[in-house]
Amino acid sequence: MTASRPTQIPTLVQGVCGDCHGVEAPFLSPNSDAPGFDAIANSAGLTGESLTAWLIDAHNYPDLMEFALSEDDARRVAA
Fold this sequence. Notes:
mainly alpha
């Protein structure tokens, strides 16, 4: 993704994603099965729009990711 990155991790991202994913440099994930945000952001073909769509569709989530995001929250996470 080629979007500008905020200098501070939003509370939403830390609260929703940070228990499993590494959300700040050096992107070490607490859950070894969960990729860090750097790996997610550098996924081939990933765009802000495609990540937002994936986050909105809870059927995409692994069983451990039992939560739902509103479209606005998904866009904030994908930013």
